[in-house]
């Protein structure tokens, strides 16, 4: 556990000394501000529904860029050899990296707390709904981050890793729209289950849907497991 | 301390290491030499457990590399060919991170970092960013990383590559000092380094061991021992080789291309034939420019063993 903690601290430290961190933070807050003002002016509601839904899709594209360096960079700089010849269990490495990426997501989301603050100043927002909305977004981040880790374990090229990550996550986005076009009932409901927006929707209504929570956790652990398998199998080649 | 037992490694169709076996005892510095691409790095990676062997087994510090990888990792210090550094961190941060993942307890981390920085000559450099360091200093940080947990076994992959001559000398002294109570494998293609540091040499080429012996034995194998290079001038240079060859002390004369009108001979003899040749030269009235005794260098031995004609 202390080793996972060491990896966690190292990841955060190396991230925040790079200018990329601040560009990323800036772009994200800019997007959030745009979605916020769009949502408020379109609906006239004191809610974050529109902003959070749009941010979840933006993060689907942005987070793989954040996680793409993880294993790809370790391999390219040779530090993977350091980690793999020190007594670092693979799970500790995965856990440290996953938690570090999730912590970055928390920091990103904390930045957007400015917007509920504005709502509270001018109106009377429902804090319960805002809280569950953020919880849903954080769960989505957790799934995206572990998909990103998996894509990063597949290749030594960070950019390729980023693209693979986006491609892996795209089905979760388009499944919803495709399901509308499908006639077969079984297939439609299957696609709707795959859809990110369908899973995150209850959170934006103020409902903590245990099935949706389980869905995000399943995707998270599924990708973490695949990452673990991919790293193990690449050692043999 | 280290035992490689019929290790082989295949990458797809490439047979990078074939049936490599050797042992290194405590306190020994083993020179692991061979041309680039010979399989040195692959073998070392198998010994550290970084990559699994296709066949065979390895034992380090009493533990099987494959069966008890964590025990082996705890006892090995490893410096890969390119030092494994995080460019964004400062030297202090980097070494503290290594101390943490090496399982050094919190209370001892600062002391351990201070000790290795002192040892490799980086005292006072804690806050320097690793990415801004020159090659020589990066190598020092790499070495500090390898010894921070005071391992009984050290595996160093070309530790002096890219260093300037003063740094190379410093690195050698340091490795020699480290080896006093440790077991060291040192891969290199700088043969003078091997001559200065190592008692034994394993020579590998094409993934196979060509020689595993003391340095003197390897030298003896190469080019048939001591030779003499003799340069003589006389009225009739053409006849000089035959006349020298007729001496009882001389076993064989190989004429080399003449230089500046002088006959140049490569002489092989059981004892030192130079007094006899000098006496002959005086009797014939020849001039003598050079009489040089040549001990085959490790370079010669190396090239002879890997089958390259010089």
User: Can you count the helices of chain B?
Assistant: 11
Helix content of chain A: over 70%
Within CATH, the superfamily of the largest domain in chain B carries the name: P-loop containing nucleotide triphosphate hydrolases
Task: Please report which band the strand proportion of chain B falls in: under 5%, 5-15%, 15-25%, 25-35%, 35-45% or over 45%.
Answer: 25-35%
Which bin fits the share of residues in helices of chain B? Answer: 25-40%
Structural class of chain B: alpha/beta
Biggest sheet, spatial arrangement of strands of chain B = 6-7-8-3-9-10
| CATH class type of the largest domain in chain B | Alpha Beta
Distance between the termini of chain A: 29 Å
Structure characterization notes:
The complex is a heterodimer of chains A (237) and B (310). Chain A has 237 residues and is mainly alpha-helical. Chain A has one domain. Helix content of chain A is 86%, strand content 0%. Chain A has helices spanning 2-16, 19-43, 49-67, 69-77, 79-85, 90-111, 114-122, 127-154, 158-181, 185-194, 196-204, 210-235. Chain B has 310 residues and is of the alpha/beta class. In chain B, 35% of the residues lie in helices and 30% in strands. Chain B has helices at residues 40-48, 69-75, 91-101, 106-119, 135-147, 165-178, 191-197, 215-221, 240-245, 274-284, 298-305, and strands at residues 2-11, 14-24, 29-33, 55-60, 63-64, 76-79, 153-157, 183-188, 200-205, 208-214, 227-233, 252-259, 262-268, 287-294. Chain B has eleven helices and 14 strands. In chain B, the strands form three sheets. A six-stranded mixed sheet of chain B has the order 6-7-8-3-9-10, sandwiched between helices. Chain B has a four-stranded antiparallel sheet with strand order 2-1-4-5, covered by helices on one side. The relative contact order of chain B is 0.13. The interface between A and B is medium-sized, with 27 and 30 residues.
